[in-house]
Please model this.
Amino acid sequence: EGSGIHPRDASRHHCQISDKVFRNSLTAAKLSIKDIDVISYSAGPGLGPCLRVGAVIARTLAAFHDKPLVPVNHAVGHVELGAMLTGAGDPLVLLVSGGHTMILAFSEHRWRIFGETLDITIGQLLDQFGRHIGFSSPCGDRIEQLASQSSGDYQSLPYVVKGNDVSFSGLLTAAIRAVSDQGNELACGDVSYSLQETAFSMITEAVERALSFTSKRQFLVVGGVAANKRLAGMLKTACKRQSSKFYLCPAEFAGDNGAQIAWVGMLQYMATRKNIEIEEALVYQSWRIDEVEVAWNR
Model:
């Protein structure tokens, strides 16, 4: 309780279960390795030790079975899988997760950033606050539940929006201080409620400004925090004001998952018929989405 993800422990767990996950996936899909045309893997961004385990497994499979190998940016995976599942064609996108808080739109073969966090992400905000009050990561669901059961007594917390960018570090510090000062269970609920309302209002303001600026008529939310009902409600209201259609990635595929890596790997390979050599299969912990050229037609 109250602890986050330890990269080396997580990578060790990946090593231990990788074979079982791979075999179970093939069984569930009623396929054999001979039916697989391309091996793709998450090359970043993310936790280095965990990414390296995935890369080693992908290299091994590609080399042993003589399959093309394709690296994938997992932020692109979030966006492209969400767009495919919802049918959003040319949306403004909000990616909210443990590793990302950014507003995106597609232009000139890249996902361009129209706003992002200046410090910690919304997922980090929720997880760090949750761990402070005794939850284990990920904490978003438990904070949402705690907030919904609170008295609704809003407590003033720092609200920082600069253009389309947001800042959460001061909000986190103030929320932790508020809980520590009051030191009771009721305070945890009210501060959780206030934290959500403040953070989500900041994001919604930035999104609405970006919708107005880009004139996009579609809006898509992806990432693990997309499952939060309060955030979705705020964003839906903003979309109505801007005459934009609201799309929400299904909860099953909102967080990190293998389907997003497989989908983008397939799109990339079908568009270019290019793969990398085994020795080139590296990982990039800080690989930004706007560094990735999208080769397929959108």
About this structure: Residues 185-214 form the longest helix (30 residues). The chain has ten helices and nine strands. The two ends are 44 Å apart (CA to CA). The domain at 7-75+257-291 is CATH 3.30.420.40 (Nucleotidyltransferase; domain 5).
